[in-house]
Amino acid sequence: MYTYSRNQFRTRPYILLCLYLFLWQGIVGQETVIKGIVLDRFSRKALSGVYISVNDSEVITTTNDQGIFEFTTSLSGNHILHIKAHNFVAKQYPLEVQLKTIDLGEIILERDLTREYKDDLIALTEVELADDNFPDSGAGLLQATRDIFLRRAAFDFGQVFFKVRGYDSRNGMVLLNGIPMNDLWDGRPQWNHWGGLNDITRNQEFAYGLEKSATTLGGLLGSTNIDMRPSKLRPGIRVSSSVSNRTYRGRVMATYNTGLNEKGWAFSFSASRRLADEGYMEGTLYDAYSMFSALEYNWNQKHQLGLTAILTSNRRGRSSAITEEVFTLLGSKYNPYWGWQEGKIRNSRVRLIRQPMVMMNYVYNNQNFQWSFGMAYQWGSRRSSRIGYYNAPNPDPTYYRNMPSYYVNSPIGANFINASIAEKGLLNNPQWPWEQLYTANTSESKVANAAYILYDDVNKKTEVTMNLGINLKVQERFQIDAGITHRTYSTDNFAQISDLLGAQNYLDRDPFS
Predict the structure, then answer these.
(1) CA distance linking residue 503 with residue 450, whole number of Å
(2) Strand pairing category for 68-73 and 77-84
(3) How many CB atoms lie within 10 A of CB 4?
(4) pLDDT tens-digit series, residues 382-437
(5) Is residue 149 packed enough to be buried (19+ CB in 10 Å), middle (13-18) or exposed (0-12)?
(6) Bridge partners of 499?
(7) Which of 353, 425, 362, 417 is nearest to 384 (CA)?
(8) Which residues contact 415 (CB under 8 A, 6 or more apart)?
(9) Which of 56, 116, 65, 106 is nearest to 86 (CA)?
(10) Nearest-10 Cα torsion for 505, 509, 512, 513
(11) How far is Cα 511 from Cα 391, in angstroms, rounded to an integer?
(12) Residues 383, 387, 391, 394: is their CA dihedral positive or negative?
């Protein structure tokens, strides 16, 4: 006969507790720490916000501002680590979970070139090619953003008809290497100052609306910072050509970037040419070239010094806004500004913009502190030609006195005979009468003074911009951004005769005063 003692019952809870602690220690002992750092392949810059997951399940963690991730898992055996980042090609790493710590070291991600190619499609609407008839567009900011709705709107509507919430482009900030580029004259960014440099300007940081930006306070329409530093651009040689049926017909572009070498130097060169004898609109010539060069020196992994030079020249023939009456008679592509001279097309309204720019940038970058200084100097002119006349009729074929409606709507009664004559005259001679202007200036009565001249409205400017920015990371979720900008702007506006159209001299007298 077997008997139970009270002491036996008392020892059982201790046995169960010891067994539980033993099993828990075994479970804890199976946990594995996985860590690594994610970098951009070309810039070697740490990537923050990269999604990390195992077996493509829910996201386990993301990288911090230094590109570092670390997490603990109780999985064992073979698994797949998935690494995903916006605008980068996703990567998968096979893992054999056996050790207590797995250090993957540096994980290199490459940019998604297919997404970059799609950005080029949007860039075909280049705002720098837009006429000043519509200077208040915000399409450049639309094309800079990665938001799917705004990108779609920029592509479908172009630079003329779509505005984000009706905002003017002066409500958005555009910066090159952290230096503000909005013109002080009207507050709008002048995209033609760096037009044609698509390979150089593709590295953009966009903040939409009132989102925070480390480079500027921005505006209601947001801000776009275009980073042109050679160390941030993809190294290699790129040559491309394209055709278009809009503003220009053909474009050739070549870019070479060394990337950052072992000695800390980086160089970039880019050039492009865009040409068209006639664009989509009749008589709209296009002749533009762009050149870019930059060098950068990095030392001690904390200091960066860069010099940049940009030269763009844009010469194009303009088109006129037409009334419904002119549209009905001559169609939507009709442009009265051009005419034939000695068998060649000549436009009376030609705009030439040539304003070179040089920049200097210095950046000091510590772990939690960064300050940058930039200075830009820009000079050059902006010219727009037009016909001037004195004691002579307006040569514009669509001048209101040359239209049929002038005689139909006469205050003394409709004159349909003269209206019919005016209509036939417009249809037979719809273009600019260059030969008649030369004839008028060389006639015996006009030998002394020209009746017609071609002159330029000239705007010459000199601008100096200095910018200082400070970024201080106090804690993981607390950062202070501050900056100061100083700009000096000097401009001269005047008219300058470019062609006497066969005459010997011109009497500069205001006929209205």
Answers:
(1) 5
(2) unpaired
(3) 7
(4) 999 999 988 889 999 999 999 999 999 988 888 899 999 999 999 999 999 999 99
(5) exposed
(6) 454
(7) 353
(8) 407, 408
(9) 116
(10) -170
(11) 8
(12) negative
Cα(291)–Cα(217) distance, integer angstroms = 30
- The distance from CA 108 to its chain's CA centroid, rounded to whole angstroms, is 27
Cross-strand pairs, 189? 182
Question: What is d(CA 468, CA 485) in angstroms, rounded to the nearest whole number?
Answer: 6
Task: Give the start-to-end residue ranges of the domains of the chain.
Answer: 27-109, 113-388+454-499, 397-431
Q: Which CATH class is domain 27-109?
A: mainly beta
Query: What CA–CA distance (Å, rounded) separates 27 from 74?
Result: 8
The single residue listed with the structure tokens 């902006």 is: 382
CB-based burial, 65-94: b 16+ in 10 Å, e otherwise: eebebeeebeeeeebebbbbbeebeebeee
Cβ atoms within 10 Å, residue 327: 12
- What are the counts of helices (DSSP H) followed by strands (DSSP E) for the chain? 9, 23
Cβ neighbours of residue 50 under 8 Å, at least 6 residues apart?
38, 62, 63, 67, 69, 83, 84, 85, 109
Amino acid, res. 36:
G
Is residue 1 scored above 50 in pLDDT?
no
Long-range contacts of 39-42 (CB under 8 A, 24+ apart): 39/67, 39/106, 39/107, 39/108, 39/109, 40/88, 40/108, 40/109, 40/111, 41/108, 41/109, 41/110, 41/111, 42/110, 42/111, 42/232, 42/233, 42/234, 42/235, 42/259
What's the pTM value of the predicted model, to 2 decimals?
A: 0.72
At residue 503, what are phi and psi to the nearest 5 degrees?
-80, 165
Residue 26 clears pLDDT 50, i.e. is over it: no
Under 8 Å between Cβ of 470 and 481: yes
**Which of 109, 104, 108, 142 lies closest to 123, judged by CA?**
142
Instruction: Kindly report the three-state secondary structure assignment for every residue of 304-344.
Output: EEEEEEEEEEEEEECCCCCCHHHHHHHCCCCCCCEEEECCE
The pair of structure tokens assigned to 351 is 């705009």
In this predicted model, what pLDDT tens digit does every residue of 265-317 receive, in sequence order? 999 999 999 999 888 888 899 999 999 999 999 988 789 999 999 999 999 99
Strands lying side by side in the sheet with 222-226: 179-180, 172-176, 222-226, 204-207
What confidence tens digit (pLDDT) does each residue in 155-172 have? Answer: 554 444 556 677 777 888
Residues 407 and 419: beta-carbon distance below 8 Å: yes
Report the C-alpha gap between 296 and 377 in whole angstroms: 18
CA angle, residues 346, 350, 356, in degrees to nearest 5: 135
Gap between the Cα atoms of 335 and 74, Å rounded? 73
